[in-house]
Amino acid sequence: QVQLVESGGGLVQAGGSLRLSCAASGGAFSSYAMGWFRPAPGKERDFGAGISWNGGSTAYADSVKGRFTISRDNAKKTVYLQMSSLKPEDTAVYYCAVGLTGHSYRSVYNFWGQGTQVTVSS
C-alpha cells in the first residue's frame, strides 16, 4: 500500500513562492495519477491540481491556474506543487493523494498524506 508524506510548507509573504513535495513509499508510484488538495468552505478537501502517471497531462482548479504548477519525478517517487504569487486566501493545509481514476477534479482520490501547512501573510 502506498504511503504519502507532504513537506515544504511554511510561512511566506503575499506574492511569494513555495514548493511543496509529496514523497511516496510502497506501491507503484510511476503508474499513479496524483493530485494536490486543500480545504475550502463546505469541502474537507478541494481539488487544486492533478497530474497523470507520466506527467504528460495536468489539470488545475481555476483558483490556482496560472500561479501553481504541478510536476513529478517518478525516479524519486515525488510529486511537487510549485506555488507562486501566493495570496492570503491560499493559506491552508495542503494534501496530496493518489488518483485512482485519473487526475481531474472529477477523479476518485485515496491514500491521503498527513498534510503540510502553508500560511500566507498579507
Quick recap of the structure?
The protein has no helices and eleven strands. The chain is mainly beta and 122 residues long.
DSSP, total strands = 11
**What is the succession of H and E elements?**
EEEEEEEEEEE
Computed over alpha carbons, the radius of gyration is 13 Å
Structural class by sheet pairing and helices: mainly beta
- pLDDT averaged over residues: 96
Q: Name the helicity range.
A: under 10%
Q: Which features does this protein show?
A:
seven-stranded mixed β-sheet, four-stranded antiparallel β-sheet, mainly beta, 122 residues
Overall description:
With 122 residues, this protein is an all-beta fold. Helix content is 0%, strand content 53%. The chain has no helices and eleven strands. It has strands spanning 3-7, 10-13, 18-25, 33-40, 43-51, 58-60, 68-73, 78-83, 92-99, 109-110, 116-121. The strands form two sheets. Strands 2, 4, 5, 6, 9, 10 and 11 form a seven-stranded mixed β-sheet that branches. The protein has a four-stranded antiparallel β-sheet with strand order 1-3-8-7, with no helix packed on it. Strand 5 and strand 6 form a beta hairpin. The model has no long low-confidence stretch (mean pLDDT 96).
